[in-house]
Sequence to fold (492 residues):
Amino acid sequence: MPVAEAGDQYSVWVGLIYIFNLIVGTGALTLPAAFARAGWGLSTISLVFLAFMSFMNATYVIETMACANAVFKWKRLQFIKRNSVQDEEHSEDEQSTSNQGYGELEDPLVCGDSIPSRYYSLDTRVELGEMANLFLSKAGRTMFYCTLCVYLYGDLSIYSAAVAKSLMDVICTNIPSNMTNTTDWEDMPCFNAEGYTRMDCYRVALLTFFAAMGPFVFFNVQKTKYLQLFTSGMRWLAFVIMISLAIHLLIKHGPQGTPPAFDFTGMPTLFGACVYSFMCHHSLPGLITPIRGKKYLGLHLSLDYSLISIFYLLLAFTGAFAFANLNDLYTLNFVPTDNENIFLEIVDYFLALFPVFTLSTSFPIIAITLRNNLQSLFLDTSRLETYNFVLRKLLFPVIAVIPPLLLTYFLEDISVLIKFTGSYAGTGIQYLIPTFLVLSARRHCTNLLGLGVVNKYKSPFSHVAWAVFVLLWSFVCIILVSVNMLEKHWSR
Fold:
């Protein structure tokens, strides 16, 4: 989620750090296991390619945001022009003020092919939902909100399952490293005694988590900048420790994991994990708007994506070869053991509980975002206060938190949740929506301003062939993932 508060401004390098922190989140913890299943060769190629696809669509979001700014400025210009005509008989001072406002903008006819237009800017924050309302049809807007809500539901489910499993693994005794059967895992005793299974502990932890975090969805969370900075610091500390410990294990014991080079059966999980790991598009406007000096924003953003790809590869490679068996959530490989070194035991507890600390602070923000989008989908938000108290304050918060609770109560498999969220809803948010938005925005602005008005924030992948490629890639991936999931279901 965005770190910047309204009114904040920062340099492009600070903005890139914020975007780096936004992208590198929970999804990164799922990469090592998916990386090992698909094979180090196939995973490396796929991760780099999906990073490029994510970057391409990030440039589409930036271009669409600039188009939205242009439309708003054009409407303001028309308003000023109308006022100028209506106020012709007013005082000379009032006319001067009106003309001053007009002078801040421009007429479309004065802008040539080689002159970047002042219409196009990134000065005004325009969220993805506002872009959808501005450029998409009613059916397109409905699909946008449905896709976003499904993605946010998946987010909340992954967060809930990750927190509950982390608490369960800290509380319960360790399971054997060769235990792979989920049914056996569910029935194992939580402690060295019968009567209370690990699944029982998981569900108690899940219910406790929802009881603690769920009520926040009925309110609004504001001024979270310092809280997010704190969790960002904890996240980076945890990642550095995990990479360092994995490298230490490789040096001390040699490679324990033997992932294949290519295993295409692991592609669906890898695809979902990578899409989920590079997700930032729904929060980009909030981080880009406050940046000062956006002249080379695209170049700087490509540098950010390159660094993130290198970091992901380092995390995944070290994890895949350092551990013989990898958990779906990487932090679960660092479950505390009876360690004589008190410092290492503290580190293990910190890593094991890391998802609990960081995801608990993000859960209310995601839940409130989901609540607001559900209201936008089903209610007229311009007259929200006219609805009764149940609709305004009770119904949508409950609808936001109950489905993830029910889903994760009976399904604790994080890999399945990520595969679905990343492969379906994630594909929609990261690929389909930015592409449809930018195509519609280009057409809209061309009709409104003319061909001579140049968008200096136009994506370098502006040829329509790139957009067609993204759409075809998205549909092919969804079909392949669906076929794979159906095959696994029928083979059971």
